[in-house]
Specification:
Elements: H1 3-29, E1 42-47, E2 50-55, E3 67-70, H2 89-95, E4 100-104, H3 117-136, E5 141-146, H4 149-159, E6 165-171, H5 182-186, H6 194-201, H7 206-216, H8 220-230, H9 235-248, H10 256-268, H11 271-274, E7 278-279, E8 282-283, E9 292-298, H12 306-310, E10 321-326, H13 337-351
Parallel strand pairs: 3-4, 3-5, 5-6, 6-9, 9-10
Antiparallel strand pairs: 1-2, 2-4, 7-8
Helix pairs in contact: 3-4, 6-10
Length: 356
């Protein structure tokens, strides 16, 4: 390598080092928080603490079948789907021409500890679908469940085979809980008593949820901050880190009755995929799902490993099914550079032709 090339690289690295130091000072000495969730939206309906938001399409050509995104209940805030302009799944989808709706389950307190999985599936989800169809004046809807939202959506569709659901997308949602990795091991009924947790705390506190996720990958924070340091010179990287770090540390509690049901019937009993799950006397039969189905797993997902996600395609009766396993982890399907270049285009490419 020529001496002048070495000198040029050295000069560029010096500039980056100065920039890193300046960014570090600004980041750790100022209290400003990133402005997340900037895509315009309308509040369509509320039921209890649950909210239905509409994000209107910004493209000239609009798909006639709207999309309802169902996220996890508790645990984390749904603004991860609309993190920052240019780094927002919702913004991406409305730019492609989708009439996009988001179910926000709400932030729960002690007063919500009586909320059950039954109520979410039999009462909240059906009314949200109904209000969406009234708002959009559409005849059918596509459901997009992420993480916990996917099995909840699957239960809804299975219990309501007459529901006007044309397409169902499962993004990183556990279905076969015997293959759900560390969480399955930790919540083994021989070692974990959900009833005692609920008796002690009322619900599952946010602090305990935080500890559980941190223990899944103890080195994650160290890796994140190491990568941050090497990219401190990059303003866009720093902005994205601050937004994602804000989200990653805003855990939310899970209501007591819901948590007990979730652990005992899904993780410990694996009843949904076995056909042994009942809500108010009604059996959840996943073979009742006949709409088009896309299942998206992540190769290095340690929250919902690919094997437990993929199981959905083996139990539905749909003639049109597809499973795709993308590089990355649980979060990289819906946030970050890899999501924007790999996962989001895959969802659009599959859903678009099926939303005509």
């Amino acid at each position: 390598m020529a001496q002048q090339d070495v000198l040029k690289q050295w000069q560029e690295e010096v500039v980056r080092q100065v920039k890193r130091t300046e960014q570090a000072k600004e980041m750790f000495l100022t209290s400003g928080e990133p402005e997340v969730g900037q895509t315009p939206r309308d509040l369509i309906y509320r039921k209890g603490k649950a909210r239905l938001y509409r994000y209107r399409p910004t493209a000239e050509a609009v798909y006639p079948v709207p999309v309802l995104m169902v996220p996890n209940l508790g645990i984390s805030r749904p603004y991860i789907f609309d993190l920052l302009p240019g780094s927002s799944f919702i913004e991406y989808m409305v730019r492609q021409g989708f009439d996009f709706y988001l179910l926000d389950w709400g932030i729960f307190g002690d007063e919500d500890d009586g909320l059950t999985v039954d109520e979410c599936i039999l009462r909240i989800l059906p009314v949200m679908v109904k209000k969406l169809l009234e708002s959009s004046q559409a005849k059918e809807v596509s459901l997009l469940g992420y993480c916990m939202g996917a099995p909840l959506s699957a239960c809804y569709i299975a219990l309501h085979p007459e529901a006007p659901v044309r397409n169902f997308i499962n993004m990183a949602g556990p279905i076969d809980f015997e293959k759900a990795g560390f969480f399955t091991t930790w919540m083994d009924k021989r070692y974990f008593d959900a009833e005692k947790v609920v008796d002690a705390f009322g619900g599952m506190p946010a602090d305990l949820i935080r500890v559980g996720f941190k223990l899944l990958k103890p080195t994650a924070d160290l890796s994140s901050y190491t990568n941050l340091w090497w990219n401190m010179w990059n303003d866009r990287y720093v902005e994205g880190f601050k937004a994602l770090n804000k989200w990653a540390n805003e855990y939310m509690p899970i209501p007591g009755c819901f948590f007990k049901q979730w652990v005992e019937e899904f993780y410990q009993g694996n009843k949904m995929v076995k056909g042994e799950l009942y809500f108010e006397g009604r059996r959840v039969d996943l073979s009742n799902i006949r709409c088009s189905v896309l299942v998206v797993g992540a190769q290095t997902d340690y929250i919902a490993p690919a094997a437990c996600v993929r199981a959905l395609v083996d139990v539905v009766s749909s003639r049109d099914t597809e499973y795709v396993e993308l590089p990355g982890g649980h979060i990289s399907l819906i946030a970050g550079r890899q999501a924007a270049t790999v996962a989001w285009p895959k969802v659009w490419g599959w859903l678009g032709p099926r939303s005509q």
